[in-house]
Amino acid sequence: MNNTWNKLIYKVGSSFYDKFFNTGLFLKTRKKIFQEVPFQSKQKILYVGIGTGADLELINYVDYDITAIDYSPDMLDKAKSKFQRSAIKFLEMDAQKMAFEDESFDYIVASLILSVVPDENKCFGEMIRVLKKDGRILIFDKFAPKNQKITLTKKLVRPFISILGTDIGRSFEELFSQNEQRLKIIKDDPVMLSGMYRYIEVIKVY
Q1: In the chain, where are the structural domains located?
Q2: Distance of alpha carbon 39 from its chain centroid, rounded?
Q3: If residue 8 lies in a helix (H) or strand (E), which one and from where to where?
Q4: Cα–Cα nearest to 36, from 63, 10, 60, 69
Q5: DSSP letter at 85?
Q6: Residue 81 class from Cβ within 10 Å (0-12 exposed, 13-18 middle, 19+ buried)?
Q7: Are the C-beta atoms of residues 64 and 38 closer than 8 Å to each other?
């Protein structure tokens, strides 16, 4: 997994992404998560890895100050086409090296991004950097089971699945441990496929 390969994968995937990840169980789960988020009208919200804009369709986006980034221009074009008359700021940007000032946003939505970026530690670190104190990161993604080693089967198939642009073996606990002095977990719920997919909220304490 690297930026060049991911850009190619999502160039191809942009044409059918919504058919898989914006329908059925994924849509039901996304609705459950994002329609209940208590955004406030004056808060600045960043969507990291917005993809085709699936999560934006679930909120009353006209009420909020939203910036949405994605590294894939093809995915970003799909999102832009859905919200042409909105005030949402769509930017082509690498989530591992964001061009925002420190402490720029009140909320960051990280939906299915930490499992696809080449370096999840850089990406998570950048989210923390651009998040204001007392701000929240909302994470919906797949992770390895808590405090468990991944199974032999997953170890064997992990490299092949990575070719498709996603990693099934990343540990949120390892990711969090590098930043635990700055963050506090306020929610960690299994939401899909027997807990493989989780919804996690963290707050930046300083």
Answers
A1: 3-204
A2: 17
A3: helix 3-13
A4: 60
A5: T
A6: exposed
A7: no
Most distant CA pair in the chain: distance in Å?
Answer: 49
Of 178, 157, 183, 184, residue with least CA distance to 168? 157
pLDDT in tens, 81-107: 999 999 999 999 999 999 999 999 999
| Angstrom distance (rounded) from CA 186 to CA 157 | 32
State residue 140 phi and psi, 5-degree precision.
Answer: -125, 115
Q: What is the mean pLDDT of residues 144-172?
A: 88
Domain 3-204 CATH superfamily: Vaccinia Virus protein VP39 (3.40.50.150)
Question: In the numeric block, which tokens belong to residue 5?
Answer: 């390969």
Residue 126 structure tokens:
């950048």
Query: What is the share, in percent, of the chain residues with pLDDT greater than 70?
Result: 100
